[in-house]
Amino acid sequence: MHNNGNHSNQLLFQQEKPSLFADVIVPIYLPKILTWSIPAEWNNRVQQGSRVIVQVGKSKRYAGIIKRLHTDVPGLYETKPILEVLDEAPVVMPEQLRLWEWIAQYYCSTEGEVMMAALPAHLKLSSESVIQYNDGHTVAIQELSDKEYILTEALEIKQQLNLGEIQSLLDSNNVYPVVKKLVEKGIATVWESIQETYKEKTETYVLLAPVYRNEAALEKLINEWQKAPKQLDLLLSFLHYDRTEGQVTKAALLKKSGVTSSVLEGLVSKGVLQLEKRSVDRLPQVAKQLDVNIQFSAAQKTALQQLQESMQQHAVTLLHGVTGSGKTQLYIQLMAEAIQRGEQCLYLLPEIALTSQIVRKLRQHLGGYVGIYHSKFNANERLELWNKVKSGEIQVVLGARSALFLPFCNLKLIVVDEEHDSSFKQYDPPPRYHARDAAIFYASVCNAKVLLGSATPSLESYHNCLQHKYGLVILTERYGDLQLPDIDIIDLKQVPESRKQKVILTEAMKERINQTLQQNKQVIVFQNRRGYAPYQLCGTCGWIPKCDQCDVSLTYHKSTQKLHCHYCGTTYPLAKTCGACGSQDFRQKNFGTEQLEELLDQTFDNAVVARMDTDSVRGKHSHENLIRQFEDQRIQILAGTQMVVKGLDFDHVGLVCIPDADGIMRFADFRAAERAFQLIEQVSGRAGRKGEKGKVVVQLFDTANPIIPFLQQHDFPAFYQYEVAQRQLFFYPPFSRLIMLQCKHKDQTTSWMACDALAAWLRTKYDKYISGPAEPPINRIRNEYITELLLKLPRNAAFLEQAKADIKTAIVEMQHQEAFKRVRVSIDVDPQ
Ligand SMILES: Nc1ncnc2c1ncn2[C@@H]1O[C@H](COP(=O)(O)OP(=O)(O)OP(=O)(O)O)[C@@H](O)[C@H]1O
Ligand SMILES: [Zn+2]
C-alpha cells in the first residue's frame, strides 16, 4: 500500500517550493504529455524511465513513466506533485523512450498509447478502490446500523479494506450504500489506490535440517530410528530425491512417496526436515549452450559471407532467399556469433508463424540463451522475460511484434523474418505501428543492424535495395539440391459448362491428390479466407471489373446491387458485359475453408483430413497440435488459410493445391498483385522441401493474369519490375506514402458527412492527393458505420510532417461541429 505518506507529502509542498519537474507519460490517451512537480525530498530518488504515481483529474491515479526531468517551471498550469516513486532504478531505457516518441509521432498516436502497448501488464498497475478507516471519527456505536457496525469494526482492526474484501465481509454484492454511509459519517474515506499485482511464483521446498546435514548425525538418526515407520520411509525417499535431483519440492515429494502431508509435518516437528518457501523462475531453465555445427552448402556459405559484409556497410540488409533455402539456419549462425560477442539479438516473426517448430529449432542450437515473448504467455512470464532482457541475462528474444518493446541493454542485431508479412502492422488499438519499420528506427538508436528476410520481399524493401538504401543478399537455391516445385495451372474456363457453378475441386486436381496420397506424401489445400467479400468474375475469360481511377478490383454489394470501389467510393452498375471478351456470363464467387474440408473428407475416404484456420485453432495448443500431427503424418490432407503459409517446414508435403486462385488475386486493394504473388509463392514453397521436388496445382478462371508466369518461373525480380511500374503509374507506395482516415459513428449518414467535412477541409491544401470518402467492404463494425478517406502523399519528410499536423487540426475542426462531436476518427499511417 502506498497511501500512507500522501497527506504529509502534500503538507511538505506547501512549505518548500519544488524546483524539479517531470514530464510523465501516463497509460491513457492524452493529446499532450503533462508535467508534475517533484517534492524536493525526492529529487535524488527520481530518474528518467522510472515509474511514479500521479493523479490525473480529480481522482484517477496512474503509474506513469518519467520521460524527462527538468527545471523549467510550466507556465500555463499549476503543477501537481507526484505522489509516489515506485522504482529506484528505471524500468524503461532511454533508447526505448526514443522509440516510443518516434512511434507516437510517426503513426499519429500518443506516447501514452505506446506505453500501453509496450509495458507488460504488471508494470502498468491497476487501480482499485480501497476504503480507509478514519481514526479520529467521533461516531457512537449506537448510531450505526448492523452492517455499518460490522464494517466499522473490521476497518478499525484492519485500517483499510478493498471492495472485494468488504463484499465477502458483509456477504453481499451491494456494499456501496453502507460504504457511502460510513463516508458521510466521517468514519471512512475512499481511495483510488494502486497496487502492484506481480506476485513472484513461490514453491515450498523440503530441506534437511542443518544438524543432519552432517553424514554421521544422519546415519545415527536413521540407525536408531524407532516407531513411526511411515516417517522413516518418507525420510528415505526424501534423501533419495534430494541426491538424485538436487532439490525437492513439497508437492513432488508427497506425490512421489504417496504419503499425506501430516507424515511430513511429523518429520518437520521432530526437527528432521524443514520447509522453505522459495521463488521459482517461471521461464523454463535450459542450459546456456551453443550447438551451431551447421554444415552449410556452398551457396549458403557465400550468402553468409555476403551477409556479414553487407551488414558492415548497411544499417539494413535484405536476405532474399527462396523458400526452403535455409534462411533460418543463416539467422541462427549470425545470432550465435552475436551471443559469443556478448551481444543481444531480437528475432521477430509474425504472430502465427511463431510456432513450436521455430522455437524447437532455436532452442536446439542456441539453448538457454533464447527467451520467447508470445501473446500466449501470461503476465508473470512476460514480466520475468522483461527483467531478464533488461539485465542482459537473455541474449536472444524470439517474439512477435510487441517484443520490440523489451528493454534490451546491448541489442546489436534485429532479424525480421517474413518481413513482407502484413501482420507486422498493428491495426487496433493504436499505436498503428509497423514492427519492421519501427525496428529499423530502434536499431538506429541502439546502433544495431537489421536483417530482413523473405522469399517474397515487400515491394518497399526490395525497392530500397535497388535504390542502394539497403544491402541485398540473394540465395536462389533450395537446400539439399532440391528444385522449387513446378506450378501447374488448371483453367476453370475449360471445365464443362453444366458443372461450372459448383466445381471446387476439378477432376484433374482430385487425381493429383490421389497420386500424392498413394506415394505416401501429404497434401496442403490452400483457401484464402480474406476473400469473403463477394466479387464478380467473367465465366468466359476470368476478367474481374476494376475501378477506372484506382486500379483495384470492385466489390459486389448485395444491399445496393452495385459494384463499389472501396478506395474512392465510386459505384458502378453490376457488370453485364465483360470488358475483356464481351461475354455476358458473370458469376459471383466465394467459398470457405469449411466447405472445402467437408468436400475433401467426402472425396478421399482413406485420408485423414484436417483444417487449419483461425476458427479451427481457437484453443491454446490446438495450432501446435495440428502442426505436430501433420509433422507425424497422422494427417494426410491439411486444408487451411494463411496459417499454413507462414514459414512452416514439413518434410513430406508432395503437393500443394490452390483451388480458387481467383479469390487470391482479386483483393480490392492496390496490393492485390503483391499479396497474391506472396501468398501463392509462399504456399507453393511448402511443397517438396525434403526428399524430392514437389508439385503445385492452381485452379483459376483468370489464366491471363500477368502474375502467373512470374509465379511459374519463381521469378520475384521480374514480378517486382512489372508491379513497381503499376505502382508508379498510379502513385502508390513505394512512390507515395498512404494515410488512411476512418470516421466511425453509429449513424451512417453522420459518419459519411463527417468524413466529407474532413475531406473538404483537407482539400484546400491536399486536393490532388485525396481519394474518398468511400465505404470499406465491411462498413459496419460493432454498430458503428465506417467511412474512409485515403491520402496518397509524396514521400518527403517535411511535407509528411506538415500533412500529419494538418490532418490532426482538420479532425479537431470537424469534431468542433455539433453534429460531429461524437464521431471517432482513426488515423492509419502506412496502412497495409
Ligand atoms: N545447412 C543446413 N544443414 C541442415 N539442414 C538445413 C540446412 N539448411 C537448411 N536446412 C533445412 O532445410 C529446410 C528449409 O530451411 P529453412 O526452414 O531455414 O528455410 P527458409 O529459407 O526459412 O524457408 P521459408 O522461407 O520457406 O520459411 C529446413 O528443414 C532446414 O532445417
Ligand atoms: Zn476507385
Automatic annotation (TrEMBL):
<dbReference type="Pfam" id="PF17764">
    <property type="entry name" value="PriA_3primeBD"/>
</dbReference>
<keyword id="KW-0639">Primosome</keyword>
<keyword id="KW-0378">Hydrolase</keyword>
<keyword id="KW-0547">Nucleotide-binding</keyword>
<dbReference type="InterPro" id="IPR005259">
    <property type="entry name" value="PriA"/>
</dbReference>
<feature type="binding site">
    <location>
        <position position="538"/>
    </location>
    <ligand>
        <name>Zn(2+) 1</name>
    </ligand>
</feature>
<dbReference type="Pfam" id="PF18319">
    <property type="entry name" value="Zn_ribbon_PriA"/>
</dbReference>
<dbReference type="GO" id="GO:0006269">
    <property type="term" value="P:DNA replication, synthesis of primer"/>
</dbReference>
<dbReference type="InterPro" id="IPR027417">
    <property type="entry name" value="P-loop_NTPase"/>
</dbReference>
<feature type="domain" description="Helicase ATP-binding">
    <location>
        <begin position="308"/>
        <end position="475"/>
    </location>
</feature>
<keyword id="KW-0479">Metal-binding</keyword>
<feature type="binding site">
    <location>
        <position position="578"/>
    </location>
    <ligand>
        <name>Zn(2+) 1</name>
    </ligand>
</feature>
<feature type="binding site">
    <location>
        <position position="541"/>
    </location>
    <ligand>
        <name>Zn(2+) 1</name>
    </ligand>
</feature>
<keyword id="KW-0862">Zinc</keyword>
<dbReference type="Pfam" id="PF00271">
    <property type="entry name" value="Helicase_C"/>
</dbReference>
<keyword id="KW-0067">ATP-binding</keyword>
<dbReference type="GO" id="GO:0043138">
    <property type="term" value="F:3'-5' DNA helicase activity"/>
</dbReference>
<feature type="binding site">
    <location>
        <position position="550"/>
    </location>
    <ligand>
        <name>Zn(2+) 2</name>
    </ligand>
</feature>
<dbReference type="GO" id="GO:0003677">
    <property type="term" value="F:DNA binding"/>
</dbReference>
<dbReference type="InterPro" id="IPR042115">
    <property type="entry name" value="PriA_3primeBD_sf"/>
</dbReference>
<protein>
    <recommendedName>
        <fullName>Replication restart protein PriA</fullName>
        <ecNumber>5.6.2.4</ecNumber>
    </recommendedName>
</protein>
<dbReference type="InterPro" id="IPR040498">
    <property type="entry name" value="PriA_CRR"/>
</dbReference>
<dbReference type="GO" id="GO:0006302">
    <property type="term" value="P:double-strand break repair"/>
</dbReference>
<dbReference type="InterPro" id="IPR011545">
    <property type="entry name" value="DEAD/DEAH_box_helicase_dom"/>
</dbReference>
<dbReference type="GO" id="GO:0016787">
    <property type="term" value="F:hydrolase activity"/>
</dbReference>
<dbReference type="Pfam" id="PF18074">
    <property type="entry name" value="PriA_C"/>
</dbReference>
<feature type="binding site">
    <location>
        <position position="565"/>
    </location>
    <ligand>
        <name>Zn(2+) 2</name>
    </ligand>
</feature>
<keyword id="KW-0347">Helicase</keyword>
<comment type="subunit">
    <text>Component of the replication restart primosome.</text>
</comment>
<keyword id="KW-0235">DNA replication</keyword>
<feature type="binding site">
    <location>
        <position position="581"/>
    </location>
    <ligand>
        <name>Zn(2+) 1</name>
    </ligand>
</feature>
<comment type="function">
    <text>Initiates the restart of stalled replication forks, which reloads the replicative helicase on sites other than the origin of replication. Recognizes and binds to abandoned replication forks and remodels them to uncover a helicase loading site. Promotes assembly of the primosome at these replication forks.</text>
</comment>
<feature type="binding site">
    <location>
        <position position="568"/>
    </location>
    <ligand>
        <name>Zn(2+) 2</name>
    </ligand>
</feature>
<keyword id="KW-0238">DNA-binding</keyword>
<dbReference type="InterPro" id="IPR041236">
    <property type="entry name" value="PriA_C"/>
</dbReference>
<dbReference type="GO" id="GO:0006310">
    <property type="term" value="P:DNA recombination"/>
</dbReference>
<dbReference type="GO" id="GO:0006270">
    <property type="term" value="P:DNA replication initiation"/>
</dbReference>
<dbReference type="GO" id="GO:0008270">
    <property type="term" value="F:zinc ion binding"/>
</dbReference>
<comment type="similarity">
    <text>Belongs to the helicase family. PriA subfamily.</text>
</comment>
<dbReference type="InterPro" id="IPR014001">
    <property type="entry name" value="Helicase_ATP-bd"/>
</dbReference>
<keyword id="KW-0413">Isomerase</keyword>
<dbReference type="GO" id="GO:1990077">
    <property type="term" value="C:primosome complex"/>
</dbReference>
